TrEMBL record:
Pfam families, per database record: CBS (PF00571), Voltage_CLC (PF00654)
Name the record gives this protein: Chloride channel protein
GO cellular component terms, A-Z: lysosomal membrane
GO molecular function, one term: chloride:proton antiporter activity
Keywords assigned by UniProt, alphabetized: CBS domain, Chloride, Ion transport, Membrane, Repeat, Transmembrane, Transmembrane helix, Transport
Membrane topology note: Multi-pass membrane protein
Protein family membership: Belongs to the chloride channel (TC 2.A.49) family.
Primary location: membrane
Bilayer-spanning residue ranges: 114-144, 156-172, 217-235, 278-301, 313-335, 363-387, 399-420, 486-514, 535-559, 565-586
Amino acid sequence: MANITKRVSWSSLCEDRAPGEGTALLDDTPGARRCRRQEFSGGSLFRIGRLSTIDLDEEVTSKEETLKQPNEIPHNEKLLSLKYESLDYDNIENQLFLEEEGQMSPMGFKCVEISRWVICGLIGFLTGLIACFIDIVVEIVAAYKYKIVKRYIDQFVVEGGLCASVILWAILNSAFVMAGSLVVAIFEPIAAGSGIPQIKCYLNGVKIPRVVRLKTLVVKVFGVICSVVGGLAVGKEGPMIHSGAVVAAGVSQGRSTSLKKDLKIFEYFRRDTEKRDFVSAGAAAGVSAAFGAPVGGVLFSLEEGASFWNQMLTWRIFFASMISTFTLNFFRSIYNGNPGELANPGLINFGQFESGAYKLYEIPIFICMGAVGGVLGAGFNALNYWLTIFRIRYIHRSYLQVIEAILAAAATATVSYILMYCSDDCQTPGEHQAVEYPLQLFCPDGQHNSIATVFFNTPERSVRNLFHNFPGSYNSLTLFLFTFTYFFLACWTYGLTVSAGVFIPSLLLGAAWGRLIGNLLTNSGVSIFADPGKYALMGAAAQLGGIVRMTLSLTVIMVEATGNVTYGLPIMLVLMTSKIVGDYFAEGLYDIHIKLQSVPFLGWEAPATSHSFTAREVMSSPVMCFNRTEKVGTIVDVLSNTSAKHNGFPIVSDFTTNEPGRICGLILRSQLIVLLKHKVFVERAQLKQRKLLLKDFRDAYPRFPPIQSIHVSQDERECTMDLTEFMNPTPYTVPQETSLPRVFKLFRALGLRHLVVVDNENRVVGLVTRKDLARYHLGKHGLEELQLAQT
């Protein structure tokens, strides 16, 4: 047996349990197991056994303590939430599906394929349009704010009373952030943050509530505008990935469940399998619009998002990414007064690095910068981890979350002003250097305060200034103070109840300390180090890679955004080094937040030391099964039982009271609800009612009605339902002695929701679900088992 902190034991506790007593089990989870209830004795339900867990902190766990699962807000990554359900990424090949596919002509399949390309084009167009809208609104409102504050600062420098100007700046920032935070906290909390962890979970097969709703998109767009204009250490690029995913989820379905509007188009794609592919395209289109990097968008969706991939999907995602960046480029050219001049492919423009020269002996310096970025990124993630735990424990009420966001906005303005006030770094603008909002403060005429070019500006323009301002634009003390303060400001900001991303703050932070290194090397007197801009670029890549731990996609994104492939090799080496070093100390930021949300996320591989475990030891049991022909009352009772909210039910035959039946198929809770809603009873067959079609199931997708909303009379409870036509007759099964890594690989690669475990006679002995696999992970002391919590 492998080294595991929780041992598993098999027992049969139903004999000691009072009739009607049950324990909580949500979404086929391996928590407390439910024994067969007396009122279901007429059905085909049976008991197999019970998998109990012994807590790590105790030598022995009593039966009462075992039956009680923790019911609290998750406060660390050692919990696994029962509230998350799985998506059905495996097609249900029942008779209805096979009949529909068989009736489609070759031309029909071609039309479906054309529709996929049309949808991807629409996704790219709408995502680019949203990005353009956000960019223009932020530019207009931020310019108006900075001009007002600049006018008062310049006035009070002469007349005295600079405190009034800092108060004005803090009030303006706080007002914008308060508006954005209020909307997020009250109307749609899922819109907080960048949304990338949630989209990663969705593409992994986890159903995150409300993550791809239209309301979420509206709140996201409004919130990110307020956050960026409010001067927080945030960027608008990360939320574009979430926005693109929401657009894709809506467009691909041809309707809006929020607006209750159905256009009666794209009905074929109303299932999780198709929707997942389009959401992948939307995420890639968001990256493309943010950075002007269509290839980087495809690779991002592959590396960070999509769990399942194929060649045709790659082409469609690339098409959506190209349309997205073209749309943004085209409408930006109209706004800039140069229609057709496509010079702004993304929300952020790093500018052209004309001189791409670097020497071979600079590569070790770049690698060392990657190591620095990995260490700083690990420190950033660790600090944000403890801050997030504090928020979960003590700042979980909406009004407290809004107050914290306001305090962060006011503190950011105050700290920025203090640093600008105390700085004596005065610079004269270069010949080709344009400063958008130059603040003179106490500098001589014709000069401006250097640190104000990074603090008193939008983050995107600050990054560009650090990349391209001429050597000597910033002294080393200015860059050090900015790096030190911005590190803590950005760390505090990520996780606030505002819509914001971490991409641009990471780039800005890395560009600052990268340029600091460039300054120190330039002062050494060696002519090859005369361009600190390239070190700012490497520092930006190292810091972002150290925080989010992306390699392949981020390399391509940086190369596409800079427009200089010469730096491709150094950027790749920097990112690889930052990831290796950062992974030694802590996980990536997105992975940390996924664990803190207790999401049953499945990695690429099973834990390395899990080969000694078999399917029998990790499966959920007992399994609730049905006959091919089952009583309506039995089905209603099973679905209505809140203490055992199963979502998949094997169909069996040849079962007895003491032995499970042989597997015949699998049917889902959502299918049974649709059958009950349409009263598909055997006794009604002679009434010549309309034959149920696959369209009826698609119309109910994705918000299937709860069982409580379906009325079944006492007479109807005595009727029967023939499930043969609707069940999946060929579900995936594994023998009970199959090793855990093999089960994991099959489950993960095929995107399954349920995997039936059978014995040598093909009898059902258990069911493997996502939480059965996700609860095992490799910890500091070997293989560990997560606790289950209803949150």
